[in-house]
Design brief:
The chain is of the alpha+beta class. It has 17 helices and 14 strands. The chain is about 40% helix and about 10% strand. Strands 7-6-3-14 form a four-stranded antiparallel sheet, with no helix packed on it. Helix 8 packs across helix 14.
C-alpha cells in the first residue's frame, strides 16, 4: 500500500568500483578464516543494506526502528544461506525478497505482533497477512522467467532496469569488465523475453492459447498492430492478455515488470525510491523539454486490448518521450512520483502526487459542498450487500488511511462520489480517493490522480451490473470485505461474484435543515450505476 519514500542515503548505496565481487566475498564467508567472517559480512552489507532498509520501510508502512530489525533478520537469513554454499550472484533481489517474507512471517506471528504493533498497519504487515498472494496474477510469467535466468543475468537486469544504475555497478558486483557485462545484459534481456514466452506456452489453458504466443510477440516486438483474430482472442482470454501486457513492458518499462514480478508487494514504491532512477528521470525530462515533443512515436508501442477504451496502463508512472534523432530510437522512462513523508510521529503510510501533493496528510475534512467537491456526481453511501454495513475510513481521513466497514451513518467519512472518469472520491476530503493499489491488495485512501498523470488504474473503478467495483487496472479483481463484521478491512480480491464483493449505493441520508434528496436507505433500495457508463 502507498508508503513514503524511505529517507535517501547521503551517498548512493552502490558505486562502480567494488573491488572484489559478491561471489568472491561469499566464498571467503564459506571457506575463509572465522576471523574474516565479520569483515566479509560487513563488506556485503555495506553494498546492499540501504536498499534493503528502504524496502523494509515500504513493507512495514513505517520508518520506525522495527525496519532495522527486519532488515537485520533478513540479512541473517541470506548470510546463513551464503555460508552454506548458495551463490552470491543477484544478491540484491534475493535480499529484498527475504525482507518481504520476514515482514509477512512476523506479522502472522501473534506473539511477535504483540510486542511490535508496527507490524499491524493495514498498509504494511497486516495487509500482507491478509493478501492471498504478494505477486500479482498478471506477473506470473515474468516471475517464472526471471527465476529461471542464470545469476549474472538476474544481477545485470535488476541493477540496470530496476535500480536504474550504470552497467559498471552490476559489472563490479559480478567481477566483470563493462564490455562483457554489456554483452551479457543484451543476452539476458532476450533470454528473459524467451522465458516469458516459454512460461506462456507451459501455462496456457488451451491449445489455442499456446498458438498465440508468437502472434503476440512478433507484432509487439516490431511495434505493429496485432492481428484481428489475436485481438478477438485477447478479449476473451485472461492468460493471453496478461502475456501481452508483460511482453509490452519489454518495449516500454522493463524495470517495472521485473520489480512487480519479483517483489509484488510495494514494487512500484520501491522503484520510486531508487536514487539512480530519480536522477535518470530528471535527465530524461530535461532532454524531452530540450528536444520538444515527438507526436506519434508512442503509437508504435502496442497496448494490449481491453474491453473498455482508456489510456494505456502505466501504474504510477507517466510515460515521456525521449528521441535519438539520428537513429530514431524511442526510450520510455519513468517520471518518479513524489510521495509524502512526515518526519515526525505521524503514520507515514501516505501517497501524494507531484500535482496535488498539498492535499495529503495535512488536509482536514471538509463539510459537504465545500470548495473542491466535484459537482458531476451525487454523494452516496456504499453498503456492502453481504454485511449490511457501509464503506468508511479508518480514523481521520488522510492519505494512507485504511478503509473499513462500519455501521451506516451520516458521517462524512461514509460519503463518496463516483465520478464519470471512475474516481471514487471521499467527501470528507475531496483531495483523496479510494486507492486499490492492486499489487498489494489492501485498499486505502490515496491522492486523487488528475487525468493524464498515469495513476488512473489505481484510483478508478468501474461498476458492474451486479454492483461490484472493479479496479480499472486489474479487472480480474473486485472491492471486497475481509469479514462481515464492523471494522473489517476492505481489500481487492479475485472477482468471484459473491455478495462480499457487491455494493449497494444509497443517497446520503438527509441531514436536518439540508436540501438534499429524501432519505432512501431502506433495505430494498435499488442499486444505481454511478460509474457514468
Amino acid at each position: 500500500m502507498p508508503t513514503p519514500h524511505p529517507p535517501r542515503p547521503v551517498r548512493p548505496p552502490s558505486g562502480g568500483d567494488h573491488g572484489e565481487s559478491d561471489e568472491l566475498l561469499a566464498a571467503r564467508l564459506r571457506d575463509g578464516p572465522q576471523s574474516e567472517a565479520a569483515r566479509t559480512a560487513a563488506l556485503l552489507m555495506a553494498r546492499h543494506w540501504q536498499p534493503a532498509h528502504d524496502y523494509a520501510t515500504i513493507c512495514l508502512a513505517t520508518s520506525a526502528e522495527v525496519t532495522a530489525m527486519v532488515t537485520a533478520a533478513a540479512w541473517q537469513r541470506v548470510l546463513a544461506r551464503l555460508a552454506q554454499g548458495e551463490p552470491a550472484t543477484a544478491l540484491r533481489p534475493r535480499l529484498l525478497v527475504a525482507v518481504r517474507d520476514t515482514v509477512r512471517q512476523w506479522s502472522a506471528d501473534d506473539a511477535i505482533s504483540a510486542v511490535l504493533p508496527q507490524l499491524l498497519k493495514p498498509a504494511g504487515g497486516r495487509g500482507m497477512r491478509a493478501a492471498k498472494s504478494l505477486t500479482p496474477e498478471n506477473r506470473t510469467l515474468a516471475a517464472r522467467a526471471f527465476a529461471s535466468l542464470p545469476g549474472p543475468a538476474r544481477c545485470l537486469l535488476w541493477h540496470t532496469e530496476v535500480e536504474g544504475e550504470s552497467i559498471t555497478v552490476p559489472a563490479g558486483l559480478l567481477g566483470m569488465d563493462t564490455d562483457t557485462a554489456s554483452a551479457t545484459l543484451e543476452q539476458a534481456r532476450e533470454k528473459f523475453r524467451e522465458g516469458c514466452l516459454d512460461a506462456h506456452r507451459q501455462l496456457a489453458p488451451s491449445q489455442e492459447c499456446r498458438f498465440q504466443g508468437r502472434l503476440l510477440d512478433v507484432p509487439i516486438r516490431r511495434g505493429g498492430a496485432l492481428l484481428p483474430d489475436v485481438r478477438k482472442h485477447l478479449a476473451d482470454c485472461r492468460h493471453c492478455r496478461h502475456a501481452a501486457d508483460q511482453l509490452g513492458h519489454f518495449e516500454r518499462e522493463l524495470g517495472t515488470l521485473i520489480a512487480e514480478a519479483v517483489l509484488g508487494w510495494g514494487a512500484r514504491r520501491y522503484l520510486d525510491s531508487r536514487p539512480a532512477r530519480a536522477t535518470l528521470g530528471a535527465l530524461a525530462k530535461g532532454a524531452a523539454r530540450h528536444r520538444g515533443s515527438r507526436p506519434g512515436l508512442l503509437a508504435r508501442i502496442p497496448v494490449p486490448v481491453r474491453r473498455r477504451p482508456g489510456p494505456p496502463r502505466s501504474g504510477r508512472s507517466v510515460l515521456r518521450q525521449v528521441g535519438a534523432a539520428s537513429a530514431g530510437v524511442l526510450a520510455i522512462v519513468l517520471v518518479v512520483s513524489v510521495w509524502s513523508y512526515d518526519g515526525g510521529g505521524a503514520d507515514p503510510a501516505a501517497s501524494t502526487s507531484a500535482v496535488d501533493g498539498e492535499t495529503s496528510a495535512t488536509s482536514r475534512p471538509k463539510p459537504p459542498g465545500a470548495a473542491g467537491l466535484p459537482t458531476s456526481a451525487d454523494r452516496t453511501r456504499l453498503r456492502n450487500v453481504a454485511a449490511g454495513l457501509c464503506l468508511d475510513v479508518r480514523g481521520e481521513p488522510r492519505a494512507g488511511a485504511g478503509a473499513r466497514l462500519a455501521e451506516c451513518s451520516e458521517a462524512w467519512t461514509q460519503q463518496w462520489t463516483h465520478e464519470d472518469d471512475g474516481l471514487l472520491r471521499s467527501v470528507a476530503d475531496p483531495g483523496l480517493c479510494l486507492d486499490s493499489r492492486a499489487d498489494a491488495g489492501v485498499v486505502i485512501l490515496g491522492t486523487c490522480a488528475d487525468k493524464g498523470t498515469g495513476r488512473g488504474d489505481d484510483v478508478r473503478y468501474d461498476r458492474t451490473e451486479e454492483g461490484e467495483l472493479v479496479p480499472r487496472g486489474q479487472r480480474m479483481l473486485a472491492l471486497a470485505t475481509t469479514t462481515r463484521a464492523p471494522d473489517a478491512d476492505i481489500v481487492v480480491k479475485v472477482h468471484d461474484g459473491s455478495d462480499d464483493q457487491r455494493w449497494r449505493d444509497e443517497p446520503v441520508p438527509e441531514a436536518e435543515g439540508s436540501l438534499s434528496i429524501a432519505r432512501t436507505d431502506a433495505p430494498g433500495a435499488r442499486a444505481v450505476d454511478l460509474s457514468g457508463g
